[in-house]
Design a protein that fits this description.
about 150 residues, 11 strands, about 40% strand
Length: about 150
């Protein structure tokens, strides 16, 4: 039933992001829908973004939980440290794999040392600092995963 609910919610929008999702993403979102005890979920179009992140020519997916609403709780996955975001990249014919999941203040994409990169801004505690101020982390694509740049 949750899968049908996700499909109904996503397909109720005519935006490009409402295209059929890979099973790995559908399973993740279905779990979030099941966890919503209010049983009324909503997604804004910015919840799902598509971009080729690893340079293989296949669109990858970014889930921004700032765009997820459980009942009247728009910030269920957001707090003072930011919002939950997840990144899934294509793995050829085997589907998609989650390469990042965490609470961030900002998530951008670029390059570092000529490789695709995820540029994160997180709360200092997420980076091992004692203060809540921002910290920045760069994850670079090594051909199989995004890893912290050295």
């Amino acid at each position: 039933m949750a899968a049908a609910l996700v499909s109904a919610v996503l397909w109720s929008h005519q935006d490009a992001w409402a295209q059929e999702l890979p099973r790995q993403l559908r399973a993740e979102i279905d779990g979030d829908v099941r966890d919503c005890t209010l049983k009324k979920t909503a997604f804004v179009p910015q919840f799902i973004a598509r971009k080729d992140l690893n340079g293989d020519g296949v669109m990858d997916f970014i889930l921004d939980y700032g765009g997820y609403k459980c009942g009247t709780l728009a910030g269920r996955y957001c707090n003072g440290a930011g919002c939950r975001m997840e990144v899934y990249v294509s793995k050829g014919r085997t589907g998609y794999v989650k390469v990042f999941g965490g609470t961030v203040r900002e998530l951008r994409f670029g390059t570092a040392n000529g490789r695709p990169a995820i540029l994160l801004s997180r709360q200092g505690r997420a980076c091992g600092k004692t203060e809540a101020g921002p910290c920045r982390t760069t994850l670079t694509w090594d051909g199989t995963r995004f890893a912290e740049a050295r």
